[in-house]
Write a structure and sequence with these properties.
The protein is α+β, with helices and mostly antiparallel strands. Helix content is about 25%, strand content about 35%. The protein has one domain: Jelly Rolls (Sandwich). It has 3 helices and 8 strands. Bound molecules: zinc ion (ZN). The site of zinc ion has 4 residues, from loops.
């Protein structure tokens, strides 16, 4: 598990290297599951090109308008963030080969903050 500090309400953070650091030396091949313990943040596998990161932020915001008429806003005022996270998903699984993440050339693991700034906990579970 590691923590990520976000600084904006919507923000994409490349956590690939931090996930890779969590793979135990004892694991040669297996599956790495990355799971965010939150209901207003998601995790996706996507290219970490700077323009695309901004596009993903805008895309996430477009998934649920901030000025929508949401029931949850009566108690917490962040329904838009919950709905965005619902679409993005709370986990991804990545194969491990030779002790390393077996991602494609352009694939990175991205935490998508939908209700920052906050401190997020990211679990990494590797099974062989
Ligand atoms: Zn809420």
């Amino acid at each position: 598990m590691f923590r990520v500090e976000t600084s904006d309400r919507t923000e994409v953070v490349d956590v690939t290297d931090r996930v890779a650091d969590e793979i135990p030396d004892s694991v040669s091949s297996g599956v790495c599951t990355v799971f965010v313990r939150h209901t207003t943040a998601g995790v996706v596998v996507q290219e970490a090109e700077s323009g695309l990161l901004e596009d993903i932020e805008e895309f996430a915001e477009d998934l649920a308008p901030s000025d929508g008429d949401y029931r949850h806003d009566r108690i917490d005022d962040n329904a838009d963030a919950h709905l965005r996270a619902t679409v993005l998903g709370e986990s991804v699984s990545v194969p491990v080969e030779d002790g390393e993440l077996a991602t494609g050339t352009w694939q990175s693991i991205l935490l998508v903050e939908c209700d920052g700034p906050r401190t997020r906990k990211v679990d990494v579970v590797v099974t062989s």
